[in-house]
Design goal:
The chain is an alpha+beta fold. The chain has helices spanning 91-106, 111-133, and strands at 5-10, 15-21, 23-28, 31-36, 42-46, 49-55, 58-64, 67-71, 75-80, 83-84. The chain is built from 2 helices and 10 strands; from the N terminus they run ββββββββββαα.
């Protein structure tokens, strides 16, 4: 039997996940990080990207925003601004947000508009990627 650790994913709006898992992968500023039971203690900044969770012999994928992961050998607390399962993502809205962000970037507005548009574009692209790549565990 694989070793597990306790994973909690929270956002300002809800407790997204609270369960025992075997592995977690997420995007960090210097690349993707994988976490298993017994991982060395760490505090990691996370970036907009796919959050992959392996538990019960199945992979599950979510779209996660930037945040922080606090890691101990037995527990991970992942605090994100947003986190969504594929079935919670509105594909049409994600596509509209992607196009809106691209248009804002083409207009070459202020630095603040640029930063907000880049964030909007990144979030939309992650949502669409999660919809496209999420394992089908039927």
């Amino acid at each position: 039997m694989a070793r597990t650790f306790h994973l909690q994913i929270i956002t300002p709006e809800r407790m997204f996940l609270d369960q025992e898992v075997e592995m977690l992968t997420l995007k960090a500023p210097d690349g993707e990080i994988g976490i298993q039971a017994g991982h060395a203690p760490a505090v990691v900044s996370t970036m907009e990207g796919e959050v992959r969770i392996f538990a019960g012999g199945r992979w599950r994928m979510a779209a996660g925003s930037d945040g922080t992961a606090t890691v101990t050998p037995e527990h991970v607390l992942l605090m994100l601004q947003t986190c969504e399962w594929p079935e919670e993502i509105d594909e049409n809205l994600a596509r509209q947000n992607e196009e809106r962000a691209k248009e804002i970037l083409r207009q070459k507005g202020s630095m603040q508009e640029y930063v907000l548009a880049k964030s909007m574009l990144s979030r939309a692209m992650v949502r669409l990627r999660v919809l496209r790549n999420a394992p089908k565990n039927d």
